[in-house]
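Much of what follows relies on a compact textual record of a protein's fold. A record is reproduced here so that you can trace the correspondence yourselves:

. . .
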Amino acid sequence: TMKNPVPQAASLLLEKLLLLVHVRPLPAGSGGEPPPAPGCYDTSCFKRGDLLEVPRTLFIHFGIYLGENRVAHLMPDILPAFTGDRRQIQQVVTNKRLILGVITKTASIRVDTVEDFAYGGSILVNHMDRLFEDQVLGSEEAARRAEKLVGATAYSLLWNNCEHFVTYCRYGAPVSFQTDKFCETVKMIIRDQRSVLASVLVGLASIVCLGLAPSTTLPTIFIPFFLWMAG
């Protein structure tokens, strides 16, 4: 897992915001469409140790291909906290199990078929290699790292998610670009709100110095207000 570089209160707030963005019902969960039938994915183009990505609407799910139609991936799941029955845990994670896993910060690194892993989505192979250049580990090393980590694990949307898992396995360091991008977006929003606040203060100062007049009062009140609402 990655070391948490921000205060705990800020971390909890960011995780709650990220939860609202990332958690969406799974197609194979509560009454959704079932995953594609076996044979819908051509696994002959996958090699052991490949990093698989499944783009979703608002996020990307990641896994490491182990060969023989098996993918290791980290999934939030409340069930491992209550039972060690592998048959129950190995069943497809439902929406309720996933959401409760996120909230309680429990998960498992599990092995599923390509069909269950992808849930009907398109699959990208080793798409992140270009970002790491010479840091790519050998395919067998990546697969072995994934296999050693299979089982129950702690979960964090910010510090230990499915992207951290695969980047550790394939590149040797747990990184999440999705988390980094989200945090940068939050920082931009905070900076924008500070800019609006600064403009309000400047406007109020101008009213004090220049007096109450439509030419100073109305822009001071309405422009920052609309900027704040837009932010």
